[in-house]
Design a protein that fits this description.
259 residues, alpha/beta, 7-stranded mixed beta sheet, 6-stranded mixed beta sheet, 8 helices, 13 strands, globular
Length: 259
């Protein structure tokens, strides 16, 4: 099972998690969406043996839904870690709820996000600094890599690369805003306008975009899994990277006369 096997949203069972990748003891799930809005948030779960990692679990109002989807895979108490790519409330706001479920939860994030989490009323937790620990090995030996994406759009934002699937969890990078939503992009040219609606205003600059692409050098990427909008399969990854390489956004548009 991989992303290219997934049908469009009309053929999905929206009452259960969707398997995006599966091999041996390693699975990746898209946990679904509860609200039909143009600004949908994607939460993901990586299951590696009996290790369960949540990626960008969403805000407080998302918690009951995400927890119910996790419970269709394993007990929510078995979620041992959460990965937070940046500090925004639609990424981190439910962390307090997840710590109530499992106080021993480890939180993989950057120091910039770590210092802001107390403002959400989040108590002490097991902080894992992805700046100093740039990868994580599961008990199986399978590995995640944390790849910097500063100012895309937040300082110390990062992406998570799963070495089994070669899937990249991109946070707000490749996020899209659209009313005609499909789980998996089937027309990248048509998808570009949906990417523009997000990227031109949220991303810092073309320099930040090209810097992120340089950080990806040497990584084979088979799918792009953003926090908002549709997922990008392998056949469009090169197109998506070319989109970023040529993106004019943020400061490029606000100060076009400055180099």
């Amino acid at each position: 099972m991989n992303l290219d096997d997934i049908q469009n949203v009309k053929s999905l069972n929206m009452n259960e998690p969707t398997v995006l990748f599966e091999t041996d003891n390693h699975r990746i799930f898209w946990l679904g969406i509860e609200r039909n809005t143009v600004f949908r948030s994607n939460a993901y779960l990586i299951a590696d043996g009996d290790d369960y990692f949540l990626i960008d679990p969403g805000g407080p109002r998302d918690f009951p839904y995400v927890r119910s989807r996790v419970s269709q895979i394993t007990s929510p108490k078995n979620v041992s870690a959460v990965i937070l790519c940046h500090q925004d409330p639609d990424v981190t706001g439910s962390l307090k709820n997840w710590l109530d479920v499992n106080p021993a939860l480890r939180v993989f994030t950057s120091p910039r996000t770590h210092v802001l989490l107390p403002h959400y009323g989040i108590p002490d937790y097991g902080f894992v600094d992805i700046e100093s620990q740039t990868n994580h090995a599961f008990k199986s030996g399978n590995t995640l890599q944390f790849i910097g994406a500063s100012f895309m759009h937040s300082p110390m934002a990062f992406t998570t690369y799963d070495e089994v699937s070669n899937y990249l969890f991109t946070g707000d990078i490749f996020a899209a805003i659209d009313s005609d939503w499909r789980l998996v992009v089937d027309d990248f040219q048509g998808h570009r306008a949906k990417l523009d609606l997000f990227h031109t205003e949220y991303m810092a600059s073309n320099l930040a975009a090209r810097g992120f692409l340089r950080n990806l050098s040497g990584f084979a990427v088979n799918a792009l899994l953003p926090q908002h909008g549709s997922l990008i399969p392998e056949r469009y990854v090169k197109d998506a990277f070319a989109y970023l390489r040529n993106l004019q956004c943020g400061l490029d548009l606000i100060y076009p006369d400055l180099e």
